[in-house]
Specification:
Elements (H helix, E strand, L loop, with lengths): L13 H38 L3 H4 L14 H9 L2 H32 L5 H10 L5 H15 L5 H5 L6 H12 L3 H9 L4 H12 L1 H16 L3 H6 L8 H4 L12 H32 L4
C-alpha cells in the first residue's frame, strides 16, 4: 500500500493574523473618541449642574459636579431680576435679522463672483477674502463712530446693518455655486431668462443645503456674540441674552455664577433645538461642499 500523502499546512489568512491588531486599534480609537466627547460635553455638564445648585454649593471648595440639593431658585432669580423675555426676543431679532440679510447679500455677491464673468472678478474676490485677516476689534471704533453719527445707537438697525454681509459667507457660497453646472445657466439665458431669474429660479433652489449651513453658522455666531450688542446697545431693553447677563454682576464685582449658568442654559436651548431641526441638511451640505 502506498503511504498516505502528508498533510500540507495551509498558511493562515492575513485577516485572521491582523484581527488582534485591528481590535486593539479600534479600542484605542474608541477610547480617544470617548475622551474627546467627554472633553466637549464637560463644560456643558458644568453649566447644567451649576444652574441647579444653591449659592452655598456653587462657591464651595472643593467644587463638586453634581448638586447635593437641587434647586430652581436660580431660574426664578433670572426672570425676577431681568426682563428675560425681552432679552430672548432681542436675541432672536438680532440673530435672525443678521442671518436673513447675510443670506440675501452674501448669495447675491457670491452669484456675481461665481457665475458672471466681468473685469476685475478675481481682484475683487481677493480683496473680499483679504478682509478676513483684519481683526474685528480694529474696525469696532470706526464702526461705532459711523453708527453714532447716524443716530442708530440702541436700535436694531445698529445691530443688524453693519453685519448684513460677511466675507466668509460670500466665499463659502461662491465655492458652492462654482460646483453647479454652467449648462443650467446657459439654457436659461437661451430661453430669455435674466440674471435675476437665473439667480432666483435656478441657482438658489440648488443651493438650499449651502444656504442652510451658512444660516446656522451666522445665527449661532450672532446669538452667542457678547461684544457687539454690548457696545451698540447701552439700554437694558435693547440688550440681548448674552449682554443682558452682564447686568447681574453687582457693583462690587460679585458674580452670581449659579444665576449666570441658569441664564446660559436657557440661552443654549434655542440653539440646541435649531441644530436638531436642521442637523440632517447641515451634515449633508457640509459633505457636499467637499465633493467636486
Amino acid at each position: 500500500m502506498s503511504a498516505a500523502p502528508e498533510t500540507i499546512a495551509r498558511p493562515r489568512p492575513r485577516a485572521l493574523e491582523a484581527s488582534p491588531r485591528r481590535l486593539a486599534a479600534r479600542i484605542v480609537l474608541g477610547g480617544a473618541v470617548a475622551i474627546g466627547i467627554l472633553a466637549i460635553l464637560l463644560p456643558v455638564l458644568v453649566v447644567v449642574f451649576t444652574a441647579f445648585k444653591p449659592a452655598s454649593e456653587v462657591n464651595a471648595y472643593p467644587p463638586t459636579l453634581l448638586p447635593a440639593h437641587w434647586t430652581v431658585a436660580n431660574f426664578d432669580t433670572i426672570f425676577r431680576e431681568l426682563p428675560f423675555g425681552r432679552l430672548i426676543l432681542n436675541s432672536f431679532v438680532f440673530a435672525g435679522g443678521v442671518t436673513l440679510c447675510a443670506l440675501v447679500f452674501d448669495s447675491l455677491a457670491a452669484y456675481a463672483l461665481a457665475r458672471i464673468d466681468f473685469t476685475g472678478n478675481r481682484v475683487l474676490l481677493v480683496l473680499i477674502v483679504a478682509t478676513l485677516m483684519i481683526p474685528f476689534q480694529a474696525t469696532l471704533v470706526p464702526l461705532y463712530q459711523i453708527v453714532a453719527q447716524l443716530g442708530w445707537i440702541n436700535t436694531f438697525t445698529a445691530l443688524i446693518v453693519p453685519r448684513a454681509a460677511d466675507a466668509f459667507g460670500i466665499f463659502f457660497l461662491r465655492q458652492f455655486f462654482l460646483a453647479l453646472p454652467r449648462d443650467l445657466d446657459n439654457a436659461a439665458r437661451m430661453d430669455g431668462a435674466s440674471e435675476w431669474r437665473v439667480y432666483r429660479s435656478i441657482v438658489l433652489p440648488n443651493a438650499v443645503p449651502a444656504l442652510m449651513t451658512l444660516g446656522v453658522f451666522v445665527f449661532v455666531n450672532n446669538w452667542n456674540d457678547l461684544l457687539w450688542p454690548l457696545v451698540f446697545s447701552t439700554k437694558s431693553d435693547m440688550a440681548t441674552i448674552t449682554s443682558g447677563l452682564t447686568l447681574l454682576t453687582g457693583p462690587s464685582g460679585v458674580v452670581p455664577y449659579g444665576v449666570m449658568m441658569a441664564g446660559s442654559l436657557i440661552a443654549l436651548l434655542p440653539l440646541t433645538i435649531l441644530f436638531v431641526i436642521v442637523q440632517r441638511r447641515f451634515v449633508s451640505s457640509v459633505a457636499a461642499t467637499g465633493l467636486k
